[in-house]
Amino acid sequence: MTSGGLPLPRSRARPTEPRQESTNLADILERVLDKGIVIAGDIRVNLLDIELLTIKIRLLVASVDKAREMGIDWWEHDPTLSSGRGDLAEQNRLLRERVDELEAGRATELGGSPPAAGSVEAAPDDSAEPPRRARKPERRPERPTERRRPRDG
Amino acid sequence: MADSVVYLYAVTDAAPAEERTDEPVLAGVDGVPVRRVVSGDLAAVVSSVDPTRFSEEALRRSLEDLQWLERTARAHDAVVAGVARSGPVAPVRLATVYLDDENVHALLDERAAEFTAALDRIRGRTEWGVKGFAVRSEGDTSPQVTEDSKPGTAYLMRRRAERDRAARGLQDAAEAAEAVHQEMSALAVASRRYQPQDPRLSGRHEEMVLNVAYLVNEAGAEALRRLVGQQGGQNLRLELTGPWAPYSFATLEEQA
Questions:
Q1: CB distance A37–B219 less than 8 Å?
Q2: pLDDT in tens, A24-53
Q3: Cβ proximity of A42 and B46 under 8 Å
Q4: Contacts (Cβ under 8 Å, ≥6 apart) of B181
Q5: Within its chain, how far is the Cα of B52 from the centroid?
Q6: Which sign does the torsion angle of CA B249, A18, A15, B80 carry?
Q7: Which of A15, A36, A44 sits opposite B92 (nearest CB)?
Q8: Same domain membership, residue A94 and residue A73
């Protein structure tokens, strides 16, 4: 991201020269939200409810493409965030494979004891219903669940 | 409901009109030109905004919309910066909205002394932001791993060495930042330290170890630039932003 800094050093100090257009949004928000004179206007808003970080994370969750258009792409380089971009179908397929694997493993482990009615083994492959009895699939950090869904907070 | 409500950007000197004839008309929030509400020696810089979009309810929603927030914040800052070009300015926090000009007038009257004091404090001065980032030293010599160390031991030692080096680098950077801050404070009329920005927010990998706003006069600004230009040592990278309108210093609290 660009910074609002000016070339250094300069031969003349002109305190009133205009800043670059590309001034970092975070720097602007830091000032216009956190600083400046606080006067209770006629319309009450509580800016203290707003966390800059939350805003940015919400942006990420809500509208990745818009953010990219704005040149905000910091998460692209964030290993904890950049991995889950596979499309839904692919994720679905992998999750099913994983469930099948786990189910198969469980069946072996239990020595093939008869499963309850409507068991997963008997269910068709494209069953949308996740097996209730299955152990929780292990966490797979390289494929987190869909991350564009808005979260609480 | 009224046709419009009044968005307040900043308070400034009520300079004589002839001093502002060549001043470009500033566009404010939603592109509406700003105007001045004058009372005595003070002028409030305002623009009319749509009451349906600046109601409490609408604002609560809009403030969560980063696109709206960015547009509004940039417009707000552009007006404040524009006013700063022609005189002292006391910026007001984003989204300060009054029902009509009368109420803005009343505000100027009621708090005239405080506004005047705030403007006097920052007259002829500008705010600069200085951020310091810890620089990772890559080529450092790591503690020796002997040839006959077991692979596991060697790995752990390497990991520990990396961790130690990172911690040392951070501490060195923090100390360098402290020294720079002392030096810069001496140049400044006032300074205000802020929390380092979270790396996720700043979009940087480097750890921020310094985040300060300095209020300086013209000579001080020049010296500050020079200092930042010299950088703070090999462990610290300094970044300057500004000039800003004195957001951090034009406060209404009576403070020295």
A1: no
A2: 777 888 888 878 888 888 888 766 666 555
A3: no
A4: B191, B193, B210, B212
A5: 30
A6: negative
A7: A36
A8: no
**Residue B103, φ and ψ in degrees, nearest 5:** -70, -35
Which H/E stretch holds residue A153?
Answer: none
Candidates B133, B135, B128, B235; CA nearest to B184 is B128
Q: What is the DSSP letter of B27?
A: B
The verdict on a CB contact (< 8 Å) between A53 and B69 is no
The band of B252, judged by pLDDT with boundaries at 50, 70 and 90, is confident
* pLDDT at site B213: 95
A151 vs B: CB within 8 A? no
Residues whose CB is less than 8 angstroms from the CB of residue A20 and which lie 6 or more positions away in sequence, other chains included: A2, A4, A6
* B95/A47 touch (CB, cutoff 8 Å), yes or no: yes
Instruction: Answer whether B240's CB lies under 8 Å from A8's CB.
Output: yes
In words, the CATH class of domain B5-122 is alpha beta
User: What tokens does A43 get?
Assistant: 């319309």
**Would A14 be classed as within a structural domain?**
no
Model ipTM value: 0.81
Interface check A64 vs B, CB under 8 A? no
CA distance A75 to chain B (A): 8
Among candidate residues A151, A94, A106, the one with its CA nearest the CA of residue A131: A106
**Closest approach of chain A CAs to the CA of B179, in angstroms?**
20
Give how many domains chain A has, as a whole number: 2
pTM greater than the 0.80 cutoff:
no
| Residue A17 is assigned to a structural domain of this protein | no
Cα separation, B248 vs B190, in Å, equals 10
User: Which member of A23, A26, A77 has the closest CB to residue B201?
Assistant: A26
Would you place residue B81 in the very low, low, confident or very high pLDDT band (cuts 50, 70, 90)?
very high
CATH class of B126-244: alpha beta
Distance CA A72, CA A56 (A): 9
Q: Judge if B5-122 and B126-244 fold alike in CATH terms.
A: yes
**What region does A71 belong to: left with phi over 0, alpha with psi -120 to 50, or beta?**
left
- One domain for residues A148 and A93: yes
